[in-house]
């Protein structure tokens, strides 16, 4: 059965960390929905990729989606700057309900705001690992880490492994 995957996104995302998993998800017959600050606004990646926001975070309901994708780049830092904490609250739903969460590079930063990383094992780009550890996660240096419903990777070079595990979670 086709699944809907929410993608939390802001400007300065790492282009390939959106486009590659998004393509893998859609090629497997699933749908992606871009969620950002304002519906119909354009967000721009670090290397010029332009994407239109489908649904505003104010209107997005996590229960409408089967999984969550968090691309890296500077997007996660911008999302965490939301004064109302809506992105962290949105992401928390997936961890609490044991629904698939896919986060690469800086993407796991958004999960810090869920306060639900205690006892979870994950990976991320080097410069956010200490923050994740301080949030209670066990952080390892591997191309992809699967902890139940949580799939994390470090950098674009890990995308093949990351996309393979995304497909397993969505199709398994």
UniProtKB/TrEMBL annotation:
All copies of the DJ-1/PfpI domain together span 3-169
Q: What residue stretch is flagged as signal peptide?
A: none
GO function terms (MF aspect)? peptidase activity
| Annotated PROSITE patterns | GATASE_TYPE_1, PEPTIDASE_C56_PFPI
Q: Which domain of life is it from?
A: Bacteria
Q: Which UniProt keywords apply?
A: Glutamine amidotransferase, Hydrolase, Protease
Q: Which residues cross the membrane?
A: none
InterPro entries assigned? C56_PfpI-like, Class_I_gatase-like, DJ-1/PfpI
Provide a GO biological process annotation. Answer: proteolysis
Q: What family is this?
A: Belongs to the peptidase C56 family.
Q: Tell me the NCBIfam families matching this sequence.
A: PfpI
Which protein is depicted?
Protease
Query: Which organism encodes this protein?
Result: Staphylococcus felis
Source lineage? Bacteria, Bacillati, Bacillota, Bacilli, Bacillales
């Amino acid at each position: 059965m086709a699944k809907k995957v929410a993608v939390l996104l802001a400007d300065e995302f790492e282009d390939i960390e959106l486009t590659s998993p998004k393509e893998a998800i859609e090629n497997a017959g699933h749908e992606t929905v871009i969620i950002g600050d304002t519906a119909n606004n354009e967000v721009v990646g670090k290397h010029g990729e332009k994407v239109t926001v489908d649904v505003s975070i104010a209107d997005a309901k996590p229960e409408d989606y089967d999984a969550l994708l968090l691309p890296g780049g500077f997007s996660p830092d911008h999302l965490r700057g939301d004064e109302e904490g809506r992105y962290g609250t949105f992401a928390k739903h997936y961890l609490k309900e044991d629904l698939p969460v896919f986060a690469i590079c800086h993407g796991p930063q958004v999960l810090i705001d869920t306060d639900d990383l205690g006892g979870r094992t994950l990976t991320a780009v080097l410069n956010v690992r200490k923050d994740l550890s301080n949030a209670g996660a066990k952080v390892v240096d591997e191309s992809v880490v699967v902890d139940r419903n949580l799939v994390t990777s470090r950098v674009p070079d890990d995308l093949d492994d990351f996309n393979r595990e995304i497909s397993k979670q969505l199709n398994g």
